[in-house]
UniProtKB/TrEMBL annotation:
Part of the Sec protein translocase complex. Interacts with the SecYEG preprotein conducting channel. SecDF uses the proton motive force (PMF) to complete protein translocation after the ATP-dependent function of SecA. Signal peptide: none annotated. This is Protein translocase subunit SecD. Residues 429-599 form the Protein export membrane protein SecD/SecF C-terminal domain. Residues 1-108 form the SecD export protein N-terminal TM domain. Residues 295-316 are annotated as: Disordered. The chain crosses the membrane at residues 453-470, 477-495, 544-566, 572-596. The lineage of its organism: Bacteria, Pseudomonadati, Pseudomonadota, Betaproteobacteria, Burkholderiales. Forms a complex with SecF. Part of the essential Sec protein translocation apparatus which comprises SecA, SecYEG and auxiliary proteins SecDF-YajC and YidC. Residues 234-293 form the Protein translocase subunit SecDF P1 domain. Pfam families: Sec_GG, SecD-TM1, SecD_1st, SecD_SecF_C, SecDF_P1_head. The gene is secD.
Length: 627
């Protein structure tokens, strides 16, 4: 009756082993480390950079305890803080010869001391949030009005070009706030302009009215189109912030949308608020210029001659120099989109650009007049220019769609399109909230959180063992497994643990023991009714299951609602809360029953069970053992 088949015990052993393996990394602590990441969007970390790091450390007489490369950064772990500081100085000297124009960011960091055999199993500790590790928190307000105004400026140029192509004579086009106004002398012209604009720009809401002796046609974005512009501006700003924060060397930054026009940025481990502000507020611009093809320019590229008058020299992605004309053709304001793709004929990776009406007209004229010449696309960041690509113009390019190709991998095409698309902010942002948390406060939060969970666990176990005796021991072991599985799942998901998450852990302990209390009391009821011990155990677990399932599902629904509609700390609480409910259902029912079956199930003539005092219905006899 109360016996588990072997396969159920096998499941328990496997779950127990997985739980221990993936919880262990959280107990090894952290070691001092140095992190090398890209200081520019066009600089990529690769295996060649890893070799440079190894050579620099070797030249300084230092040996890293572990050296890892995750595709975006290189992390060198050391045994002592002294070695960490020496390594930072050595790498700074080797990789950043010019401090005013750093290609790499060398930052101090802390890495988990997880043994290599655990890392090989992809077992890693949970990340610590801002409130536990310390760092900087910013709340950024995006100027959505500026995004809509910028879109209106672009539409004004597009409408001007459209009416010119349709030969519609108008009295002037201007922008009034976020509305584009087209003036005309008569109603026929207004109608012609309305038809042309409505056909080409269905996202615009058109209204016309007389204005003295003239007529005015007003074009404004429809509400759904305006929302789309705002959403795209917010997403582009978030993408740009991700690119910029790489410079700070933050392992797990939190950059997420809050509301319709705000962005939360949390940088655990960063204490330099001034530098963080500089990074977040940095502007990047894009310019298209013609390459100087003269012989003097070729000599200037190699350093054998000065740069010709009217030209400038900039480095490209490979570190070589390129001389370009000072006069720019287009800027990033004329670029509306950039996407990676493939050439339909050669199948080579390409970058496909989309220009606005003004940019399309200028680009068509320039490419027609400069076939066979090179054109450079330059990204300016912090006053420093860098050539992203310099393709040869093959033919006149019209229609506002430009294809860049030549010696690019698919990954480079994707990276280049991201640079061109998100090199600058789509809308201005303002820091409206700023908070700095020191590492001392973070350590204090960790200590208090661990004490609350530990003492809560101990007190619950003592109470259960005293009140329910042997069944209390089984319940305490199940509660321990629940805590073990909760930490293991969070570690496997690489979740970020915050103070609300620790609070949810403590709450999960109290909720998980409820299931065992229900089971134990159900067994007691069966014993009071005169059932045999084996039958009471069987009926207690079976009849308590429905109640446990109902209560946990209702609580899980609330947790999922918090997860779906909450943000920030609320979501952190909800994640731990939901996972704790799922693990408690396994540990409190499946695992605890396995322990009970293992202890009592093989006793054929079981006369009593140690489940504490069982009061008889008449209230007369109280026994510490049910008989």
């Amino acid at each position: 009756m109360n016996r588990y088949p072997v396969w159920k015990y096998a499941i328990i052993l496997v779950v127990l082993l997985v739980g221990v393996l993936y919880t262990l990394p959280n107990f090894f602590g952290e070691s001092p480390a140095v992190q090398v990441s890209s200081g520019k969007a066009t600089i990529k970390i690769d295996t060649g950079t890893v070799q440079r790091v190894q050579d620099a450390l070797g030249a300084a007489g230092l040996k890293a305890d572990a050296l890892t490369f995750d595709g975006n950064s290189i992390k060198a772990r050391f045994l002592t803080p002294d070695d960490q500081l020496k390594a930072k100085d050595a790498l700074q000297h080797a990789l950043v010869p010019d401090a005013s124009d750093p290609s790499y960011v060398v930052a101090l960091n802390l890495l988990s001391s997880t043994p290599s055999w655990l890392s090989a199993l992809h077992a890693a500790p949970m990340y610590l949030g801002l409130d536990l590790r310390g760092g900087v928190h910013f709340m950024l307000q995006v100027d959505m009005a500026a995004a809509l105004t910028k879109k209106a400026d672009s539409l004004a140029g597009d409408i001007r070009s459209l009416l010119r192509e349709k030969t519609v004579r108008h009295g002037g086009i201007s922008r009034n706030g976020q509305v584009v106004e087209v003036k005309a002398r008569d109603a026929q012209t207004v109608q012609a302009a309305r038809n042309a604009i409505a056909d080409q720009f269905p996202e615009l809401l058109l209204t016309d009215a007389p204005d003295g002796t003239e007529f005015v046609l007003r074009a404004a974005l429809k509400p759904e189109a305006a929302r789309k512009v705002q959403e795209m501006a917010l997403k582009q700003n978030i993408t740009t912030l991700h690119n910029r924060i790489n410079e700070l060397g933050v392992s797990e930054p939190v950059i997420q949308q809050q509301g319709v026009d705000r962005i939360v940025v949390q940088l655990p481990g960063v204490q330099d608020t001034a530098k963080a502000k500089d990074i977040l507020g940095r502007t990047a611009t894009l310019e298209v210029r013609m390459v100087d093809e003269s012989s003097d320019a070729r000599s200037a590229e190699t350093g054998r001659a000065p740069v010709p008058f009217g030209s400038e020299r900039y480095p490209d992605r490979n570190g070589q120099s390129l001389v370009v004309k000072k006069q720019f053709i287009l800027t990033g304001e004329n670029l509306t989109d950039a996407q990676p793709g493939f050439d339909s004929q050669t199948q080579e990776p390409t970058v496909n650009l989309t220009l606005d009406a003004k940019g399309s007209r200028i680009f068509r004229d320039v490419t027609r007049e400069n076939v066979g010449k090179r054109m450079a696309i330059i990204l300016f960041e912090k006053g420093k220019g860098e050539v992203v690509t310099a393709p040869v113009i093959r033919s006149e390019i019209g229609g506002g769609r430009v294809q860049i190709s030549g010696r690019m991998t698919a990954m480079e095409a994707t990276d280049t399109s991201l640079l061109l698309r998100a090199g600058s902010l789509a809308a201005p942002m303002e820091i409206i909230e700023e908070l700095t948390i020191g590492p001392t406060l973070g350590a204090e939060n960790i200590s208090k959180g661990l004490h609350s969970v530990t003492w809560g666990f101990v007190v619950i176990c003592v109470f259960m063992c005293v009140y329910y005796m042997m069944f209390g021991v089984f319940s305490s072991l199940a509660l321990g497994l629940n805590l073990l599985l909760l930490m293991a799942v969070l570690s496997m998901l690489q979740a970020t643990l915050t103070l609300p998450g620790i609070a949810a852990m403590a709450l999960a302990l109290g909720m998980a023991i409820d299931s065992n209390v229900l089971i134990n009391e159900r067994v007691r009821e069966e014993l009071r009714a005169g059932a045999a011990p084996q039958a009471a155990i069987h009926a207690g677990y079976d009849r308590a299951w429905a109640t446990i399932l109902d209560s946990n599902i209702s609580t899980l629904i609330v947790g999922l609602a918090l997860l779906a509609f909450g943000s920030g700390p609320v979501r952190g609480f909800a994640v731990v809360h939901c996972i704790g409910i799922l693990t408690s259902m396994f540990s409190a029912v499946f695992f605890s029953r396995g322990l009970v079956n293992l202890w009592y199930g093989r006793q054929k003539k079981l006369k009593s069970v140690a489940i504490g005092t069982v009061w008889r219905p008449d209230g007369g006899t109280a026994l510490s053992r049910a008989e």
